[in-house]
Amino acid sequence: MNRRDFLKNSITVIAGLAVPLSALELINPRKLLAEKPDGSRVRWAFLVDTQACVGCGFCVKACKTENEIPHETNITRTWVERYVVTKKGKTYVDSPKGARDGFTTDRIDLNEEGLQEINKDDVEKAFFVPKLCNQCENPACVQVCPVGATYQTPDGVVLVDRKHCIGCAYCIMACPYAVRSFHPEYKTAEKCTFCYHRITKGMKTACVDACPFGARKIGNLRDPDDPVTKTIMSGRIGVLKEQYGTKPQVYYIGLSKEVK
Amino acid sequence: MVHGEAWTLKELFVYPNEYIYWTIQIVMYPFMTGLVAGAFVLSSLYHVFGIKQLKDIARFSLVFSFALLPVAMIPLQLHLQHPERGIEVMLTPHFTSAIAAFGIAFSTYGMIVASELWFVYRRHFVETALALRAKPDKSPLERFRYLLFSTLTLGAWDISAHALEKDEKAVKIMATVGIPVACLLHGYAGFIFGSVKANALWTTPLMPFIFICSAVVSGIALCMLVYMVTMEIRKLMAGWKRKQDPSLPSPEAIKSMEMYEITMTSRYLVYALIAALGLELLDLLFRDYAKFQSWEIVRSVIFGQDFVNIFIVQYGLGNLVPLTLFLLPRITAKRAAVATILVLMGVFMMRWNLVIGGQAFSASFAGFMHYELPIIPHDIETFKEGLIGAILVGITPFVFFWGLNKIFPVFKYDDSH
Amino acid sequence: MGSHVWRPLYIAVALIVLVLIARTFLVPEDFGVHERGYMYGMHRKGNENEWKAVTVKYRTASYCKECHADKVESLSRTPHGIINCENCHGPALNHPDDPPTLTIDRSRALCLRCHAALTTPTSGRANIVGINPDTHNPGAECSLCHDPHNPISRSHSDEQARLSQK
């Protein structure tokens, strides 16, 4: 080995060592399933069945009431998106008021562009996708909080301390899923808590309870007998925006490439 | 109404929670920090590298940099939803956040500039305090000034040649240490944006360097501009005063000195401008070549709705025109003044296009957001984050400079350094 | 270097000490790095309990059952049995103590959430009976003709026949 090769190899080895093995793994729910040394026996995860969703928006309405987000406020912790793909391959997406009142018309709400009429015969596929906080394993929003006002609980839920948040909006900028906003009253960062006050009492989240079609489910990844865990482990599931490396923990059945 | 709703227009599909949350004050913030860092680097060119020709402008930019310092913090405070909790950044800093570094970088930098100023002006403090002490019946104002200047000496009254030599040495050390800290202060401001992986326009490792270069550009430009304006005033005053006291320098003498400094300084401005422009174009070229998933929408923003702002106003009027003005032979004060104003506008537009442009498209890559700057405020929010708030932030450093000039006389004082 | 050049440093140190002292008074005691480490777990521990203490508003059908067992049971045998009582009757909170009566949402808009016909061939919506709200008795409250608790045996049998023919 000449000096040049030696230097080259050493650099490769050093660079390799700098990457922890865990970073090379893909999102692996099995790893989260194993009990961690921190002793938590719970790791909350969510399962969304986009095939089952009908776009009624009961989840959004229930969430707003349960979590004290004023009904008329144009922010929401959870929302439902509608995707309409035409035979020509054009995709239309909308979520008027986050689907607080459901979807009751075929016209697509394009905001400033107005309402878009789509010919029924042109529709190739159309479906609904509920969205909520992904309670990421590597939450980018927590990483960027300058004061430690947002954090991850031992059971994997990301919360915001309303008495500590300075309202800089850095977390809102850092979230690739745009689930965060400002609460109109508290003026602090606002986000889905997986209804922490419910799930820690053995209940399900308000949106899960409000969904008549079983499109939303919540479960504990560290309980191998949990039906949600079983589906996540054995079913064909996807997650949103994997490329950001946030390791989202909301799993989707029937995800389509059009979903943003 | 939720925060951001008042000035955000949505087009096509935008996530329900998306609004333009970072507004005019976040444009002002890197602009003002850039001016601070740039002004300091300019003053250090003289102190560290001994570029004697910059002596006059160096002391001026040091004081001006200090006047700008508190102003870099004001836009952040105006932007926060809970400004009363802003101090938490110092009390419970979370260092994985680029903003948490602010507390440390900002106060370190503030202390360095303050101590450098102290070393430069200590002799002035001592002399002023001693002169006031010697005066028999002091007016209340004089008594206050005496107290102020005695305090400012920090009890160090020794102004022997030996002690002043030490001061000079300390100034050099502070100026040297200050350069990397100034770059850090502004580089981290670039990192605040560059590290947001969720924002397709911001995320690039080049961001801190782009910020530092454009900071130096804007800092030098502002110092040149203010320097030229004050010199203009001095020329007028000199012409008027010389009627009584012919020993004072003539307007012509002041003018030749002024032109000398401007020619020297503009050379550094041109270097920094070329570096900043190069980095920005490299970033653009790379994005076009790499064609990431986000490029389609980013491109439609850059070459579509923001084309005039980016290519005509920022690169054209803000960079290329002043570059030409500086590079053409036989520079005059008027031409330099026009060029510096254009440069300042260009750097401001660069911040604007970055901060507002980065939020011009939805994270869904399927829709756009348009920012409507609140001009006439109708509540505290549209006042703070509107035109009025931005203008207030822009004026403040000049008010501070006027005040500081009473303590740190920039022009009358002939220091030994 | 002699003594006087260190004076700005003394001030800097004094300022740092001041911040550290202020910190001990202003930062809550339970603030610190917790289970999830420095990057994700730095917070005020007490805040977790604040979130746990939020009032539960939707008590689910199992709570309704405690008093209205018959209603819950009969509803569960209809296609609307999948809908949580509180979706239409409003959150129970501590009903019947607080509030003594619930506000029932009888609006047309509520029914239209599921029963407005949409062109969504690849979603569950396609399997739900839908109407065109603009032409199907516009303005009328759905419960005038339809019984939300028993949508199959409608009061207007001709309407039912018309729909079943479809």
Q: Would you list the SSEs of chain A in sequence order as H and E?
A: HHHEHEEEEEHEEHEEHHEHEE
Task: Give the neighbour order of strands across the main sheet of chain A.
Answer: 11-1-13-12
Helical content of chain A stands at 10-25%
Strand content of chain C: under 5%
| N- to C-terminal distance of chain A | 50 Å
Which structural class matches the secondary elements of chain A?
alpha+beta
Mean pLDDT of chain A: 90
CATH class call of the largest domain in chain A: Alpha Beta
The proportion of strand residues of chain A reads: 15-25%
Kindly report the CATH topology of the largest domain in chain A: Alpha-Beta Plaits
The main sheet of chain C orders its strands as: 1-2
Q: Tell me the number of strands of chain A.
A: 13
Largest sheet of chain A: 4 strands, mixed
Radius of gyration of chain A: 21 Å
Please give the largest β-sheet of chain C.
2 strands, antiparallel
On the 0 to 100 scale, the average pLDDT of chain C is 89
Relative helix content of chain C: 40-55%
Question: What characteristic shape of chain A results from the CA principal axes?
Answer: globular
What is the CA–CA distance across the termini of chain C? 98 Å
Q: What's the CATH architecture name of the largest domain in chain A?
A: 2-Layer Sandwich
**What Rg of chain C is obtained from the alpha carbons, in whole angstroms?**
30 Å
